[in-house]
Write a structure and sequence with these properties.
The structure holds two protein chains of two kinds. Chain A is an all-alpha fold. In chain A, 70% of the residues lie in helices and 0% in strands. Chain A has two domains: 109 residues, Rna Polymerase Sigma Factor, Chain: A (Orthogonal Bundle); 72 residues, Arc Repressor Mutant, subunit A, CATH 1.10.10.10. Chain A contains nine helices and no strands. Chain A starts with 12 loop residues before the first helix and ends with a helix. Chain B is built from six helices and nine strands, in the order H-H-H-H-H-H-E-E-E-E-E-E-E-E-E. In chain B, a hairpin with a 4-residue loop joins strand 2 and strand 3. The longest helix of chain B has 15 residues. The two termini of chain B are 38 Å apart. Classes of the chains: A mainly alpha, B alpha+beta.
Chain lengths: 193, 236
Amino acid sequence: MERPHPGPRRPDAASVVDLAGLLQRVAGGDRAAFRRLYEAQAARLYGVALRITRQPALAADAVHDAFLQVWHHAARFDIARGNAQTWLLTLVRYRALDIVRRRAREAPEQTMPEPIDEAPDPLAQLAGSRDAAALHRCLERLQADRRRLVALAFVEGLSHSEAAERVGMPLGTVKSTIRRSLQSLRTCLESGA
Amino acid sequence: MSDLPPPAEPDDADLLAGEYVLGTLDAAAMASVRGRAATDPALADAIAVWERRLAPLADAVPPVLPPPGLWRRLEQAIAVPPVPANDPAKPSLWRSVRLWQGTTAAALALAAAFAAVALLPGQPAPMRFAALGTPGAAATVAPGYMAKAMPDGTLVVAAVAPAPVPAGREMELWILPPGADRPASLGMLPAAGRSITVASMPATGTHLMISLEPPGGSPTGAPSGPVVYAGVLVTV
């Protein structure tokens, strides 16, 4: 599995160029490129989907659907504007979120399975890209409980109400805390401070 | 309970984009943000910026090997080759779009006819109409649905002469603004039609389509089943 590994040297540049090149070839219908893209990214994306759906079958569906979108719409990816890794991530996250939200709506009495493990500490594990460094710096400025709430929501795909239940805070408090945290992050990331 | 937001100031719109990317919105609010982003480039840009900002949070998630059957599933799913690359901007999905673009002239005439009926004296506000007809059908065939877009962003889709929806399928409504290369879902469409609020009045030339999907909607975020009705909004 040749997952692009955030090594000490130029962690992102090589993999981003490579992924973008693969996407271009996929847009032209190149199956071998599609397979290489899958091999390079499937484990990362399946990990993300599994944290959100918490069920292997649903996570596999999310990754399946996302890669089908890639196959059909790789031409939409704009190298000049976007990061290929981020694009793939968003496709999988939205699919996984759609799946769990739909299930929550259809079977609200069904409780979610237990989380796979505790929320990761976002500060400990952000990889070394420049965007990650900036986010890391700005997360550090949030109070620890806010930081945890943001990371928990993103990684576990929790809705406002699920997050409220998880952290034992009233729904309104969770909503306003998340908004304030996003505001702080935005201010910090925009200022580049 | 819903997270559906009230019409909002720019700052609120940006934070709503942030919440959308973070993933804390419920299903209705997510669909609403998606629908608005399809016609609101500022919101779409805000979403893209938040996606880039927050993406590194996923670095904290350890990779997990997917089940070995997953690649085989994908391989089978892509067994039908995509449309040749001579039209790279509009790949395979738009076969169905091309199919029904041929009916545009008929749809225009129908929309104008319906608009003439609908525009009563003392109703000066400009509105846009589309007849959503069966792709490839003759102009004499009544459209399945009519769409009316109002200046306040209300989009009404009303049943005219729809065919019954096959068992096990549901209709999903899609919007494709001029220049856009992907349609956005406006949610499921009950047989009787429904009224939707979008960020702003969809432009003339905006395509509306109705596709048949599995219950709950397309699994891919784009029309996955046949487009059964389609039309183009015209100003009357």
